[in-house]
Write a structure and sequence with these properties.
The chain is mostly beta strands. The chain has no helices and 19 strands.
Length: 212
């Protein structure tokens, strides 16, 4: 299945029913269309339904369940196409989408988030506080950064301007939140970054070198 997706961002299996599977498909890099968006299977991957379709150049790069209610889903949309002359890695339809009914309907979240083109987004949630959602958002210099929601993605606040660097955020933007400590979040790029206060300060792990 999904033979035309070419790039898979994440796979989630519903903890209540292993036949229910979600696939975040970024789609082909060098062409439009293909299997692009968030797909859902009810039969363990034998067949797939496209439950979140954005446009021919925008796929889904990350997806997370609410830790106590897997019918609540957060999906990060990412517009990206490579051409001979360059990489187009942002767009107006990128952003964070939320479903409260297992993917049947979606709402693009806006309150507190960048209101311009965004690039790659990484998401993280934690069972230590199921209301928390973290996001690392590629955007312009003023609006890019580490964002936090305390109300299941309904509103957001920017905590820090850091996004994954090194060879570029399009290779990284991966977040992992501690399942025991709500304010402890790790961010991967060339180095391992860590915040221990929910995003206000981000350090290179083991060095104490801080990013703001």
């Amino acid at each position: 299945g999904l033979k035309n997706s070419e790039h898979i961002g994440k796979i989630l299996v519903d903890p209540r029913d292993s036949n229910v599977v979600y696939v975040a498909a970024e789609g082909p890099l060098w062409s439009a269309g293909g299997d692009r968006g968030l797909f859902k299977s009810f039969d363990g991957g034998t067949t797939w339904a496209l439950v979140l379709e954005i446009d021919e150049n925008t796929g889904i790069t990350d997806v997370e369940f609410n830790p106590v209610n897997p019918d609540v889903i957060y999906a990060a949309a990412y517009e990206r196409r490579r051409h001979v002359w360059g990489l187009m890695a942002s767009g107006p339809n990128g952003g964070i989408y939320k479903s409260s009914d297992g993917g049947a309907s979606w709402k693009k979240q806006a309150k507190g988030l960048p209101d311009a083109d965004v690039g790659k987004i990484g998401l993280a949630v934690t069972p230590a506080n199921p209301n928390l959602v973290y996001a690392s958002i590629e955007a312009d210099d003023e609006k890019k950064g580490f964002y936090r929601s305390d109300d299941q993605g309904e509103s957001w606040s920017k905590k820090n301007s850091y996004i994954s660097g090194g060879t570029g955020p399009h290779y990284y933007q991966e977040l992992t939140a501690s399942p025991q400590t709500a304010n402890l979040v790790f961010q991967m790029d060339v180095f391992m970054r860590v915040t221990r206060d929910g995003g206000s300060h981000i350090d290179i792990l083991g060095t104490g070198r801080e990013k703001h």
